[in-house]
Amino acid sequence: MAGMLAVGATLTRLFARDRGGRPSPFALLVANPLSAFGLALLTVIVVLVIATPFLPVPDPDITDPANRLLRPGTDGHLLGTDHLGRDLLSRMLWGTRVSILVGLSATLIAATIGSLIGLVAGYAGGRTDSLLMRGIDLVMAFPYILLALAIVAVLGPGLLNALYAIAVVNIPFFARNIRGITLGLSRREFVDAARLSGASHAEILFLEVLPNVLPTIVVTMSTTVGWMILETAGLSFLGLGAQPPQADLGSMLGEGRKLLFTAPHVSVVPGLMIFALVMCINLVGDGVRDVLDPRLKSGALAAPGAATRVARETVPPAPSTDAVLSVEGLRTEFHVGSRVYKAVGGVDLDLAPGECLGLVGESGSGKSVTALSLLRLVPTPPGVIAGGRVTIEGADQLAATPEALRRLRGGRVAYVFQDPLTTLHPLFTVGDQIVEAIRAHQPISRAEAEAQALTLLEKVRIPSAKARFSAYPHELSGGMRQRVCIAMALANDPDLIVADEPTTALDVTVQAQVLKLLRDLSRERGSAVLFITHDFGVVSELCDRVAVMYAGRIVEIGPSGDVLDAPGHPYTGKLIDCVPVLGRPERRMEAIDGLPPSVDRLPAGCAFADRCDRVQEDCRHGDIPLDPFGPGRAVRCLHPLQEVS
Ligand code: ADP
Ligand code: MG
User: What is the rounded CA–CA span in Å between residue 173 and residue 569?
Assistant: First the structure.
């Protein structure tokens, strides 16, 4: 039952209508010209064979020795007749019907049994796994066409027995595939959660694990149907499948073999049909694989490029500053189906050498996308940089060559991301990873790089650095892992460190240490830091200046002390009110009501208007500029909380 539900869910997904602006998988399938061609041809063939009983064609088994081996196009026999005078068109249609049915049934049997074995083996593990898999190995130890022949020899020739033989030899294919995926899935957290909620093994297997492997089962099926049809035809060709007078494509080919020179059409007709059938099934199968493959689910079939696509109409002129980083009018969009998500809608920033700028905002306000856009790290598709200029080292990085970008990344500009466990490679020791980071940018020997890496590990205060040098990421605590990432970021003395919520995954005490370390080391080396966070408490301790982001735009920017003391934008005020202050229990903490607007449907005027208690009529029209607001400050608000100082 659960299995049927899951099959239903996958099929619904394949044919689902346009959801959330994303093209439906069916639309994606048809967008692929080869699959579309295969699908069209397959549809024609399937419709023809389904309609065969109602078509005005003669009975396929009626012999007519007087009219044997008629050429195609002869009266009443469009494709001619065979050596017994039977109509070839009729036999081909009925034969295709049989071949498709047998191929499909064999695939279904192999998929069901094979997937069940794979699911149970992968989920149970231990002895069950060993027993089942050794059984599968046993089947795989024989060349499979030989094994199929042996099975038919034991069962006796016949179409049904050929079907069983083909199904059996294909079971290992499914079992091994599904076991591998189940093995990985059944150790994941959502399975643990189901176990904790008291679900039975069967429930976990069929409701939690099966839906996740189902796309793989469907993909494997769609890519093997063609094979199975060929294999059945092979057995029939050898006389072990369909028995006379029943027609299937393989036996027709076998009968025509002896007449290849005198009456080639008798073998060419079924041969072409096998070719067309298997080809279009495989084309559709490949298309289905591309659409359903869990790894390609973003809806975009192309792998992301090495740099975000830039599609600017105009390029802002070069700024005349000595800033490490200068961003003007940066706009980054995500084009998903027919929707355009304006994740970053015109951001202007400057970072002086050695300065620390905090970028603050709610989750989803566009902070990470801004940071990634600087070095064109946003994946394309769906990301596109639609406008603006990013100046680093005096050059416009949005126009840089891939090689120049590569030198910059991890060299002059380093990133520290949120979750160190996902950024560190699980199979290399942390020492090796730092060495790699150093040698990617500096032409020094391994020994020298190792010495530098060790110094770095000591610098980020990893206890007993020498011993930790050859530790794997999973052997370190979260705090230590993030220290390793900071060491990697510092490895090439960058001018700019972009730290994207580097401590969100750590607990509060470790967080403070790591932040202090990052700030101290960047001060010591004179690196500027773009520090992304959603926590105003952290900003006040760490940053010289702060920029507040809302719905993809900066709404307030200025020296952190001034902004914290007297926020100008109502949103900044609310964000500051959300931060608890130790020892001041009387202070009222308020959550901000409502949600930020979706960036694919931004309202006119101020994006914060709907949640603002100072909103007025004029807030809802036009574009509200980021106006100067006292020394070094700017605010994007018509009715700020304070008068301009
Ligand atoms: P945050 O400020 O929390 O770091 P992000 O910069 O990650 O926010 O995201 C900004 C906006 O961009 C969000 O509205 C998010 O939904 C959107 N976004 C991010 N990545 C994608 C993507 N691959 N496809 C579509 N939208 C995306
Ligand atoms: Mg983020």
Answer: 62
Ligand nearest to the CA of 343: 1
pLDDT above 90: percentage of residues in the chain: 27
DSSP category for residue 401: -
Beta strand pairing status for 413-416 and 634-635?
Answer: unpaired
Chain segment 321-341, per-residue pLDDT in tens: 788 899 988 999 988 777 888
| Ligand 1 pocket test target in 365, 384, 554, 601 with most atoms within 8 Å of CB | 365
The reported pLDDT for the residue numbered 12 is 57
Distance 552 CA to ligand 2 centre (A): 12
For the CA of 500, the nearest ligand: 2
Whether 334 lines ligand 1, by a CB cut-off of 6 Å, is yes
Does ligand 1 have an atom closer than 6 angstroms to the CB of 359? Answer: no
What's the gap in Å between 307 CA and the centre of ligand 1? 17
Digit-coded pLDDT (tens) for 351-400: 998 899 999 988 888 999 999 998 888 887 788 888 889 998 888 888 88
- Token pair for residue 10? 């996958």
- Does the C-beta of 534 come closer than 6 Å to ligand 1? no
Give yes or no for residue 469 CB within 6 A of ligand 1.
no
Nearest Cα to Cα of residue 633 among 571, 566, 585, 577: 566
| Nearest ligand 1 atom, CA 598 | 14
**pLDDT (0 to 100) of residue 299:** 47
Cβ atoms of residues 383 and 334 within 8 Å: yes
Q: Quick one: which of 234, 185, 169, 405 has its CA closest to 310?
A: 405
300 lines ligand 1 (CB under 6 A): no
Beta bridge partners, 559, equal 545
For residue 352, which of 525, 495, 561 has the smallest C-alpha distance? 495
d(CA 103, CA 161): 13
- Do the bridges between strand 383-392 and strand 395-396 make them parallel or antiparallel, or are there none, so unpaired? antiparallel
Task: Render pLDDT for 446-494 as a digit per residue (tens, 0 to 9).
Answer: 999 999 999 988 888 888 888 889 999 888 888 888 889 888 888 888 8
Residue 526, exposed/middle/buried by CB under 10 A (0-12, 13-18, 19+)? exposed
pLDDT tier, 18 (very low <50, low <70, confident <90, very high otherwise)? very low
Among 599, 600, 601, name the best residue to mutate to test ligand 1's pocket (greatest count of ligand atoms within 8 A of Cβ): 599
CB 522 within 8 A of CB 435: no
Q: Which ligand is nearest to the CA of 365?
A: 1
Q: At what angle do helices 478-490 and 446-459 cross, to 10 degrees?
A: 130
Residue 341 CB less than 6 A away from ligand 1: yes
The Cα 164–Cα 108 span in angstroms is: 11
Helix H or strand E encompassing 390: strand 383-392
Q: For residues 306 and 293, give the distance between their C-alpha atoms in angstroms, rounded to a whole number.
A: 22
Atom index in ligand 1 nearest the CA of residue 372 equals 6
| CA–centroid distance, residue 371 to ligand 2 (Å) | 9
- Is ligand 1 within 6 A of the CB of residue 60? no
Find out whether 88 and 249 touch, Cβ atoms under 8 Å.
no
